[in-house]
Amino acid sequence: QNELNSFLWTIKRDPPSYFFGTIHVPYTRVWDFIPENSKKAFQQSHIVYFELDLTDPYTISALTSCQLLPQGENLQDVLPRDIYRRLKQHLEYVKLMMPSWMTPDQQGKGLYADYLFNAIAGNWERKRPVWVMLMVNSLTEADIKSRGVPVLDLYLAQEAERLQKQTGAVEKVEEQCHPLNGLNFSQV
């Protein structure tokens, strides 16, 4: 483990500060591969800052509303007819397949395919194309099987709260949302 790239940088000061790069995947996919020096730095830290504060209800609400098209517009109004039709067919396919993608563990915890589909893809016709693209990319069998497991960032934020560490965020939702919403159709 000592030879692994830990994605941990130390800022030499007293006390030291650390910078750790995370990725947005279920933490169970990567946790066993995170070197001990990174875990130890997290445990020893008193204050932890994240990209966004995913434990703040305002953050979640703002992320949800920033994804929407302007009032009165629907995805059908902004996508070419053929792409919209193919997207709709794909989502119908995903909804049909989702029950077979669910794990027994998910089902045992009361997670139902219809609920999960609506949680991920609900209101998709009101979303901006860039957010629909990101949503579609997460509607795979592997991603569905890992639903219910927090992504690494959220897991660390929940751990920080549990350990009563002071937390914060380095970005505001608007700083992530506006650049994505500013992409034109060909960029998306």
TrEMBL record:
CDD domains: Tiki (cd14789). The lineage of its organism: Eukaryota, Metazoa, Chordata, Craniata, Vertebrata. It is found in: Cell membrane; Membrane. Belongs to the TIKI family. Pfam families: TraB_PrgY_gumN (PF01963). The gene is Trabd2a. Its EC number is 3.4.-.-. The keyword Glycoprotein applies. Keywords: Cell membrane, Glycoprotein, Hydrolase, Membrane, Metal-binding, Metalloprotease, Protease, Signal, Transmembrane, Transmembrane helix, Wnt signaling pathway. Its cofactor is Mn(2+); Co(2+). One of its GO terms (molecular function) is metal ion binding. It comes from the Eukaryota. Divalent metal cations. Mn(2+) or Co(2+). GO terms for biological process: negative regulation of Wnt signaling pathway; proteolysis; Wnt signaling pathway. GO terms for cellular component: plasma membrane. This is Metalloprotease TIKI. It comes from Serilophus lunatus (silver-breasted broadbill). It is an enzyme of class 3 (hydrolase). Metalloprotease that acts as a negative regulator of the Wnt signaling pathway by mediating the cleavage of the N-terminal residues of a subset of Wnt proteins. Following cleavage, Wnt proteins become oxidized and form large disulfide-bond oligomers, leading to their inactivation. It is a single-pass type I membrane protein.
